[in-house]
Amino acid sequence: MTLDFLGDLRRTHMCGDLRAENDGQEVVLLGWVNRRRDLGNVIFIDVRDRTGLTQLVFDKSENPALHEKASTLRSEFVIGAIGKVRRRGEKTINRNIPTGEIEVVASELRLLNESKQPPFLPSDPALANEEVRLKYRYIDLRREPMQYNIELRHKVALAIRQYLSSKGFFEIETPFMTRSTPEGARDYLVPSRVYPGEFYALPQSPQLFKQILMISGFDKYFQIVRCFRDEDLRADRQPEFTQIDLEMSFPQPDRVFEVVEGFLQAAFKAAAHELKTPFPRMSYDEAIRNYGIDKPDLRLPKLTDVRSAFTAEQLQSLQLNPELPVVAIRIPVIGDLSRKERDENRPLFGERKEARLIDDIKRLEKSFPEAVAKLREMSGAEASDLVVLVGAPAQMEKSATRPDYGVFMAAGALRVELARKYAQRHMAFHKGGFHFAWVTDFPMFEWDENEKRWNAAHHPFTSPHERDMDKLESDPGAVRALAYDVVLNGTELGSGSIRIHRQDIQSKIFRALGMSDEEARSRFGFFLEALEYGTPPHGGIALGLDRIVMILAGAESLREVIPFPKTAKAVDLMVDAPTPVSEAQLRELGIKIR
Ligand code: ASP
To answer: Which of 26, 321, 483, 540 has the CB geometry, 3.0–4.6 Å to 392, for a possible disulfide?
Structure first.
């Protein structure tokens, strides 16, 4: 087939632009053949670009040579067409597309390129298997939903940039080839050719650089930035992902919250959603007691401690510890589950040391009618709600530090599982869009049972509460951090903290984490030194851009909103990465594969 050159063909409109008012205009359209319908004497070609489709008409009786040329077109060929806009007759109007009132009667056609028969057609509503989609991502991205998602991503990022810039934030780049940042994952390493045996690390976050930018007096920084974390493979994780990362000088947590609420409002507006601010706030302790989890889904009713509905003897007869909470989980609308269905749900609770599932209150109604009536009232349960109780086993001891979190957390986990399983049924789960919350005052440290030591719950640069400083050595488990998360509908969108700006406190934290001065110096010496040159109080946060866009797009996976994602097994199927490299390259880097 002979191909034509683009020559001087200059587009007058995009394929989604033309309307009835353009009737009679001569236009030039450029794009892909979405579909060809050959009716013998007339051929219709839908030409497509990222804005939509326009129907081109080739009439044999008017221009036999052009009609002949149109008959050679196939799906995904690239064409240019000159023609005249014509209103369609009432009967042939296509109300499903914005250009459906018109068509373009072609007077010239240039065939700019052919296409092999693609493994799937962008116009096919049936979705190809995901591996095929990822291997042929360039074709997959031509599909309308993908074009929508990528455009949405652009708009959201732009709205965030504009908002932050209007509030005095500078977008400042930080290096990709750097040293390890402690965010709790493994590093991706880049070997140095010049210094054999030495490596750069790709950043897990720009954490230390953004703190240094505060030391450097930039006052407010942000970056929409790629981060790299080599984590254990999980279904919806990407080894490289994009964060909206920010840091500011002299802030209280409230100042950070205002900025984040502001840019989220702008981002959601870009997707035509209005957000109400400020978001509700709760401490970690309140989140655990009310929801049993640190990323509460506010669309469902809270948990209620209904222990006082029972007498101590009743609790003992249920083999429960009468000194620990009895937590009621209430899920609307699914109160009519059969006994069999309820039994089938028991595995959702699993085996737990710290908590026992007592089941649906229906089972208790006969033996403890008064208690059940009281607990219904306490938890605000309606007749149509499923109410399940979780308590602590009788033999469970009341521990000194976190007396009752175990019961609440077990109940919280079951609440999430039940909510997920019956999401279709209980309307409350679907109603009312976006429920944000701030969770504050996280514990500073987490006990690592394997290593028998304390780990930083956020990262080691997070400031402890001023009021808890004296417990750093005596009672690390009770120290609260000036750390916060922003949560949406039960998922964590981002975390941040007020940082340590004093060298003396930073050293204390490293000590509490069991890190010797020597080790701290060798890992973060540059940073500890920088802290000693006039570091202002500062703090910040980072939010996952991919996740925000996924939620706004109503997509089920991050891969739907990342142009070139990796699979759940960390493979790029299109470029086929990772791959082995040549012996010569390895030799040059001084690397030997074991
Ligand atoms: N660097 C942290 C993270 O990536 C966020 C922050 O503390 O600002 O999770």
So the answer is: 321
pLDDT digits (tens, 9 = 90+) for 567-590: 999 999 999 999 999 999 999 999
The pTM of this model reads 0.93
Contact in structure between 274 and 397 (CB atoms under 8 Å) = no
Please choose, from the candidates 540, 551, 580, the residue with its C-alpha nearest in 3D space to the C-alpha of residue 209: 540
Confidence of residue 11 (pLDDT cuts 50, 70, 90): very high
**What amino acid occupies position 184?**
G
Could you identify the residue written with the tokens 């109503």? 554
Please name the amino acid found at residue 366.
K
Under a CB-based contact definition with an 8 Å cutoff, are residues 49 and 86 in contact? Answer: no
Secondary structure string (H, E, C) spanning 178-197: ECCCCCCCECCEEECCCCCC
Residue 278, both tokens: 């400020």
Give the position, in ligand 1's atom list, of the atom nearest the Cα of 206. Answer: 1
d(CA 590, CA 382): 70
What 3-state class would DSSP assign to 454? strand
CB 230 within 8 A of CB 239: yes
- Hey, which of 458, 487, 499, 545 would you mutate to test ligand 1's pocket, going by the most ligand atoms within 8 Å of its Cβ? 458
Q: What is the pLDDT of residues 311-346, one digit of tens each?
A: 999 999 999 999 999 999 999 888 888 889 888 898
Angle at 366 between CA 365 and CA 372, to 5 degrees: 25
Dihedral (C-alpha) 526, 463, 217, 266: value to the nearest 10 degrees? 120
Report which of 406, 485, 472, 483 is spatially closest to residue 439, judged by C-alpha positions: 485
Around ligand 1, the residues with Cβ closer than 6 Å are: 183, 205, 207, 495-497, 540-542
Which residues, in sequence order, are bridge partners of residue 200? 190
HSE, side-chain direction, 13 A CA sphere, residue 16: 8
| Count of Cβ atoms closer than 10 Å to residue 474 Cβ | 8
